[in-house]
Design brief:
- The chain is of the alpha/beta class and 267 residues long.
- Helix 6 packs parallel to helix 9 and helix 8 runs parallel beside helix 9.
- A seven-stranded mixed β-sheet has the order 3-2-1-4-6-5-7, sandwiched between helices.
- It is built from twelve helices and seven strands.
- Helices cover 40% and strands 14% of the residues.
Length: 267
């Protein structure tokens, strides 16, 4: 890794007390420079455990939702001077020992967004993914590949790495505060012409791991198809959207810009 390049892991957390320490202990300390946990009003001991582990902890005043949590994660990482940001769920569903492999394409300048794909990892159903989630994952991924003209194996993973250039460009603050945030930021990656790649990761589903329920999953699926439609309408000039047109610097208050874009202003 080039000298001075900073890797920050962000954890959007909600009731992760039973799995946070295991997730943290698997992180390769020689690669990760900082860990930021954003707590979305957990009702368990997530915050206390995070403090004990020495993480930087941001506590929301009220629950903002999964997407709202990620917004805080990325803003804090940009403010702290991250060159590469890894988004990792603290629920132990993803193998955090694979962070070096996840960030390698960004380090080599081959991509600005890397996805940890459970489909490429194989054994998705054997790893515990419910059949209905597997089938909906496959259907949504097919629809997104057709719309975005990509050949990715999975769009719906909670283990991702972003370059600073990516997060300082796309207007992720315009995205939803709900689960569909993940689909929106990928559509933005395509709209802004960023390179996306994948690495294989194993599938882990177990009782303590957080998981989107059936009802929320159906809502997420419908909203994801809405994102695809919105992207296509914007692409073909039928209905322009700031979500795919404006850069982050154009929507951030000028009073906050110096702390968020300090690195870009100094360049």
């Amino acid at each position: 890794m080039p000298e001075g390049e900073k890797v920050i892991v962000v954890m959007p957390a909600y009731n992760a007390a039973e799995t946070l320490e295991k997730t943290y202990k698997d992180l390769p300390g020689e690669v990760v420079d900082e860990i930021i946990l954003v707590d979305d009003v957990s009702q368990d001991e997530t915050v206390e455990i995070a403090h004990r582990l020495g993480l930087k902890v941001i506590i929301h005043v009220q629950n903002t939702g999964y997407g709202g949590n990620q917004k805080t994660c990325y803003l804090e990482a940009l403010k702290d001077g991250a060159d590469i940001v890894v988004m990792l769920h603290p629920d132990y569903q993803y193998d955090s020992t694979l962070v070096p492999q996840l960030i390698q394409p960004i380090r080599e300048g081959k991509a600005d967004l890397v996805l940890g794909s459970r489909i490429l990892g194989g054994g998705t159903l054997a790893g515990g993914m419910p059949l209905y989630k597997y089938l909906s994952n496959r259907f949504l991924t097919l629809a997104e590949n057709l719309a975005f003209r990509k050949r990715l194996s999975e769009y719906h993973t909670g283990f991702r790495a972003y370059s600073r250039r990516f997060l300082a460009t796309v207007p992720f603050l315009l995205n939803s505060d709900r689960f569909v945030f993940d689909s929106q930021i990928l559509a933005q990656a395509v709209a802004f012409g960023f390179e996306i790649t994948e690495i294989p990761v194993p599938t882990r589903y177990f009782e303590e791991a957080s998981s989107v329920g059936f009802k929320d999953g159906v809502i997420y699926g419908i909203q994801t198809l809405g994102v695809v439609c919105k992207y296509l309408l914007n692409k073909f000039g039928i209905l322009r959207s700031d979500q795919f047109q404006k850069k982050l610097s154009e929507i951030v208050s000028r009073y906050h810009s110096p702390s968020i874009f300090r690195r870009e202003m100094d360049a």
